Amino acid sequence: MFAMALSQYGGPEVLEATELPEPKVGPDSVLLRTRAVGVNPVDYKIREGALDGLIPSHFPLVPGFDVAGVVERVGPAVVGIAVGDEVVAYNRQDHLEVGTYAELTSVPQRAVALRPTSVGWAEAGALPLVGLTAYQAIIDRLDLRKGETLLVHAASGGVGTMAVQIAGILGAEVVGTAGDRNQDRVTAFGATAVPYGDGLVDRVRALYPEGVDAVLDLVGGQALDDSPELVRDPARICSIIDPQRALDLGGSYHFCRPDADQLATLAGWVDEGRLRIDVGRTLPLAEAAEAQRLQEQGEVVGKIVLTA
Ligand SMILES: NC(=O)c1ccc[n+]([C@@H]2O[C@H](COP(=O)([O-])OP(=O)(O)OC[C@H]3O[C@@H](n4cnc5c(N)ncnc54)[C@H](OP(=O)(O)O)[C@@H]3O)[C@@H](O)[C@H]2O)c1
């Protein structure tokens, strides 16, 4: 099968078109024929070797966690998913090797849900990782409730726009930080927008003198360090960037995990028109190196998606 894979860590150029054997399908897994693959910052971090010490990794390594596609085969223990089903998945496994930048990908059933049908393949393929990350951080870690206030650091990106909308679905009020060019974008997704950078504490304090109920940090650094001054209880700071710093501040860290039920909930919200996935650019799978370059440069507004 055709795949984009790396045989060594490095720049975008190490991501090469490759012919690989069709993936084997374990008892609890399904084989998907890829239609769309959401590109995420973790993809280029893996290519650069940043996760090598954390997750067992094997070359040739096919990157990619997000996928939307059609079920081509099911393992003998799989119940409730059939050949021909159109699905989405967050295919992050314990080893990095069989990712989604490929014509075919083998995915455990625990990571698979029916795709939202009211949107195109590209939107569906961009949903899993950013949707699940925001959902789990806000609901499982921060336990955000109706009527509460949430500050999202980096609200204009993939995870940020999901977080703003999910908090809104829960009935919470959101203030989100973004660069100058994205202030209107954050407002359009349903949050009060504030510029990040120097003076952020004063700007948020002006809106919420008593502090907010919870903080979701999607950027780390100064934004995370400023968070205890902005939240009533530091236990309700969750970072997806900096585990040690988040714990030192009394908060929590979250790493996205596959969850079929949560993914089905997200797909349902999309079909109900309550959750919007904004795709900024699509490229063919063979142009994965260019897609990662664009992702790393941060110039595309909206999700970057590979199509197959
Ligand atoms: N732990 C996990 O499981 C997990 C899961 C998903 C993502 N992540 C990580 O979370 C980060 C965000 O992911 P993403 O997919 O949302 O990335 P993204 O779509 O590339 O968005 C990044 C955003 O960061 C904003 N930003 C840059 N500098 C900032 C600053 N100083 N203060 C506030 N915002 C700033 C940018 O805003 P402007 O463009 O408006 O300047 C941009 O919208 C990445 O590092 C990713 O690897 C971790």
Q: Any ligands, ions or cofactors bound here, and which?
A: NADP nicotinamide-adenine-dinucleotide phosphate
The geometry reads as globular
The amount of helix comes to: 25-40%
Query: Helix segment count?
Result: 10
Which structural class do the helices and strands define?
A: alpha/beta
| Separation, N- and C-terminal Cα atoms | 12 Å
Gyration radius (Cα, Å) is: 19 Å
Strand content: 25-35%
Mean pLDDT: 98
Low-confidence stretches: none
Number of strands: 17
- The helix-strand sequence is EEEHEEEEEEHHEHEHEHEHEHEHEHE
Biggest sheet details: 7 strands, mixed
How would you portray this structure in words?
This protein has 308 residues and is α/β, with parallel strands linked by helices. 29% of the residues lie in helices and 28% in strands. It has ten helices and 17 strands. The strands form four sheets. Strands 3, 5, 6, 8, 9, 16 and 17 form a seven-stranded mixed β-sheet that branches. It has a six-stranded parallel β-sheet with strand order 12-11-10-13-14-15, sandwiched between helices. The protein has a two-stranded antiparallel ribbon with strand order 1-2. Strand 13, helix 7 and strand 14 form a beta-alpha-beta unit. Helix 3 crosses helix 4. It is globular, with a radius of gyration of 19 Å. The chain starts with a strand and ends with a strand. The model has no long low-confidence stretch (mean pLDDT 98). The structure holds NADP nicotinamide-adenine-dinucleotide phosphate. The site of NADP nicotinamide-adenine-dinucleotide phosphate has 27 residues, from helix 1, helix 3, helix 4 and strand 11.
